[in-house]
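INFO worker-7 received task bundle
INFO bundle size: 2
INFO processing item 0
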Amino acid sequence: MVTFEDLGNGQTKLTFVGNETIEDANESGQLEGWNQVLDKLAAVFTDLAQAK
């Protein structure tokens, strides 16, 4: 499960709850995959903010 919480001042708190330990997620490449997804999501949000 992933939740996003608006903290104000342009900041967002992301909480991710998974079924594996952080070590297992890292070993299986999940952390790298999530980092790639979040980088792409940040780029989309940046583009949307600049389009306003």
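INFO item 0 finished
INFO processing item 1
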Amino acid sequence: MRTENGALAFRSSGSACVDFFFEMVPRVPDILIERLLEGAWAENPQTAQKLIFHVGAVKEGKQDRRNFYFCMDWLRRHHFETFLANLQHSVHLVCWKTALGLLSAAVEGVAPLLEREDIDRYKRRREEISDHHLNVRRPRCRQRAVSRRQQKETLSAAAYKAVVEQRRQAAAASNRAAAATAREARQVLAQEREGGVRQLEQRDGQFVRFKEKVAELFADQLQRDKEAMESGNRVAGLCAKWAPSFKNAHDKRTQIQEAIVRKLYPEERFRLAHGGASDAEFLSLMRDRFRKEYLSPLRAYSRVPEVFMGTNRWAELPYSRVPSKCMTLRESVFRKHDGERFEAFLEQVKRGDKKVAAGALLPHEIIKPFVKNTFGFVENGDEDREADTTLRELQWERLVRDVKEGGQLGSCIPVSDVSGSMYGEPLLVCVALGLLASRATSGIWREFVCTFSNQPSLVRVRSEGQSLSEQCASLQEINWGMDTDLNAVFRLLLQVAQKHSIGPEEMAKKILVFSDMEFNQAGGGRTNFEEAEKDFEAAGYRLPQIVFWNLRSSSGAKPVVATQKGAALVSGFSKNLMKSFLEGNLEEFTPFSLMMKALSRECFSDLRVVD
């Protein structure tokens, strides 16, 4: 097949599992995910199982929870026993919230869950509200203003005051009626949801087992956490934070809290103490005990930030316990309610006395405001507030430090595709990963990023003495265009090496190509990889190992096959994939071997296939 720009490529790598690994990126169509899943499972169920969890894993995977939900729901529908046997790993590899989300998908379908995980959901909602305000509310308010002005001019003061009072009473009555209608609608919805769950439990044995498994996971972990708390030991994990409170969002959809309460307070042990109570009264009493004995004390003991925020105890908020995404989203709130302590915390982080969380953030989420300002584009409905430079700088440095602690990339040069097809989120990710990789390399190519479209540019991104904003701005000198000429990048690297008399031993050992893989035609009936091999050999150099890092769901073209030595195929927005090709960690560098190395992490070793 050919890419969108005419280059020779492969429709498949020759391995369905490698195809899944390479094409699984955010915003990939669900129908394609299902096809990739079916192919990978048919080829090797054990590897496919690991690939599914790798999609969602926060520390060792792609951190793509939306696509992880879709894959797990597919697994539940097609291989239920395997799904149930491995559900416990999802709460540790991804988040405790995932078990509740998947349970709600079993009740109401996966579409609402995916909609809630859509990163554009709030942008679309803001657009809807804005459109409604511009098209409906604003004209109506103008008409009312004209009418009221006319009334004020024509009526006496007493008469106008009476009209205003009448209007106030009418508005209050209307609000009371609307509130009563909304309350009634909520009650009806709650009854329908509860009835739907009860009916599902009566007719679907698999759902009953699934719900019991989720309740068992929470009950067992909460008991262990309570024992640790009572012994004065540290409570690991966030089970208490995500354990459903009565009638919270997940409990409304699945009635899961009742199942957890019955696990912790079985009737045969606790019924005698409340012998005269009806079942509903007994359940109500046990729910109250659950809140007092588990949820509230464990959340307080674990210093869950939401406990302090929800009770306006800002002066006690432990900022070092605030998750990275919460820190970014709520920064303005912290400054408003506790500005002095928040600034003091940032100063302590600068000095190295404390740490700021950054692990759950994707690189492009940190630099997004700077890249948007540099390249001058705004996504639809994007109304991000101006980012605080200090917080972003500290989060970025923490991210860089975390990557370096995993090992050096060696002599490596990142190549960032800035062609027209990358416009939007893929461009943000491309620039972010390029900057991050440039900081994690060593040798003479350290702090260099090669950008390409029509004409490639080799850009020096200095980390010393330059802010993150300035590092992003240093990429302004690049040449933009609609083409994606990859081989021009290889020729530029050879020209630079020859101009500065760089010997074969100093040539970059790896080239990380961050792109959507829609390259220009190489010429001579060869693929881009084959053309690069020819050019490097002619110049007296050995072709560096090339990592093709896919950032966009497009034609599905593969630049190499799964067994191609000296190349690798990866994808996604997370920095975690860099761990797979650290210097000296692979005996044979091929797309298949790198995928298997990424899946060989200890956290995936306990996954098993049952059916």
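INFO item 1 finished
INFO post-check item 1: Confidence is low (pLDDT under 50) at residues 378-387.
INFO post-check item 1: The chain has four domains: 17-119, 208-310, 314-361, 409-602.
INFO worker-7 idle
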